[in-house]
Amino acid sequence: MSRQYETVIGLEVHVELATKTKIFCSCPTAFGGAPNTHTCPVCTGMPGSLPVLNKQVVEYAMAVGLAANCRINQYCRFDRKNYFYPDNPQNYQISQLYLPICHDGWVEIETASGVKKKVGIHEIHMEEDAGKLIHDEWEDCSLVDYNRSGVPLIEIVSEPDMRDAQEVIAYLEKLRLIIQYLGASDCKLQEGSMRADVNLSVREAGARELGTRTEMKNLNSFKAIARAIEGERKRQIELLEEGKKVIQETRRWDDNKESSKAMRSKEDAQDYRYFPDPDLVPVIISDEWIADVRARQPELRTEKIARYMEEYGLPQYDAGLITSSKHMADLFEETVRLCNRPKEVSNWLMVEAMRLLKEHEMDTDDIRFSPSNLASLIRMVEQGDINRTVAKTVFEEIFSNDVEPETYVEEKGLKVVNDEGALRSAIESVFAANPQSVADYHGGKERAMGYLVGQTMRAMKGKADPAMVNRIVKEMLSR
């Protein structure tokens, strides 16, 4: 009988903070830009240049720490992590080893079985990002772009509390939503503003001692993280089943090949020779500063769900789906403020917007239409200016091009036809063209009326008021 194994997983999550300038200089942090244009003597490590700490970085780190139930280190400092690599112009990285800003926190996730579970956070520390190497295989050379060098990061180090890919994704999604709601980062994995390294080991079920762990890098999507976890778990179990040892090493995941390869082992791991950075004074965080940051914390997702259910009467499912993206929640709230129809707004977002997002393979953060145009569409339906069939067509234009619905309806002639004379004339033409259906209705087949209503709506190009058409058709058939 084969042995049963338990997977033990901890994460190191790097998050680029949404400051306008870098952590120790005034260079912009905007994504993109021509290579080496967002640089200065400080972030390129020129001799004689001195770092000056960006206060906003400290406040974002504190905000994330408080939201993740961490204790704040009121005396913290920066350390130098010494290593040579071409994308690291100073030959050291400024980080926090000995006294990180936050420690001993937790976030709560829901497991696949629906059980609530706390994942411990060992620490959160501030540091600067390195530059980026671009390997040009065509020219057979490597180029370096220092635009990212000095961009502020926080690294969130979890305890090894997760047991499978589902728990890891739940933890990452919880972290991402907390950070997005705080406005501390956009957490876009595809742009590198959120990156996760996975520390994974396996042990026999019931064993108390941890197995030998490996660290997985190069993970830039939740799907890649899930595949990497499953692949590494299987690899380690196969080694143990064959009587071999797992080597403690860093591995790089190749999502195209769905396999990993060793980058460096423990034997050649570097001694980073950490020491306190001599150019930066310790950061002293007062009780008042913590209280001020805490007072400015926005409403987070859990609180929003409760308020939407109580204030707007939304079901828990609706509230959960809308708040699963901060962008969607902001769009919902502003639209409700403009039209005061929360359930209608919720229905348009959950049904039509979600359908179009799926069709176009877009993320909720890619929605670009304005709340005012959705609110205007909802008012037009409520006032009877357009029916729901036409409204869906108009919404597709709002979704794609953010058109102003009143102008669009006017230009395309889509207003509901409420002219009773015009409707009676159209119905008479439908009756004349479909005498069998009229006869079927009089013969007791009531479904024939539905067909005649449908033909009338078709003749009116969907612009008639369905209730009015139903009423007139029934009246004319009963004669």
UniProtKB/TrEMBL annotation:
Pfam families: GatB_N, GatB_Yqey. Its EC number is 6.3.5.-. Keywords: ATP-binding, Ligase, Nucleotide-binding, Protein biosynthesis. It catalyses: L-glutamyl-tRNA(Gln) + L-glutamine + ATP + H2O = L-glutaminyl-tRNA(Gln) + L-glutamate + ADP + phosphate + H(+); L-aspartyl-tRNA(Asn) + L-glutamine + ATP + H2O = L-asparaginyl-tRNA(Asn) + L-glutamate + ADP + phosphate + 2 H(+). Transmembrane segments: none annotated. It is an enzyme of class 6 (ligase). Residues 330-477 form the Asn/Gln amidotransferase domain. InterPro entries: Asn/Gln-tRNA_amidoTrfase_suB/E, Asn/Gln-tRNA_Trfase_suB/E_cat, Asn/Gln_amidotransferase, Asn/Gln_tRNA_amidoTrase-B-like, GatB, GatB_C_1, GatB_Yqey_C_2, Gln-tRNA_amidoTrfase_suB_CS. Heterotrimer of A, B and C subunits. Belongs to the GatB/GatE family. GatB subfamily. HAMAP family: GatB. Allows the formation of correctly charged Asn-tRNA(Asn) or Gln-tRNA(Gln) through the transamidation of misacylated Asp-tRNA(Asn) or Glu-tRNA(Gln) in organisms which lack either or both of asparaginyl-tRNA or glutaminyl-tRNA synthetases. The reaction takes place in the presence of glutamine and ATP through an activated phospho-Asp-tRNA(Asn) or phospho-Glu-tRNA(Gln). This is Aspartyl/glutamyl-tRNA(Asn/Gln) amidotransferase subunit B.
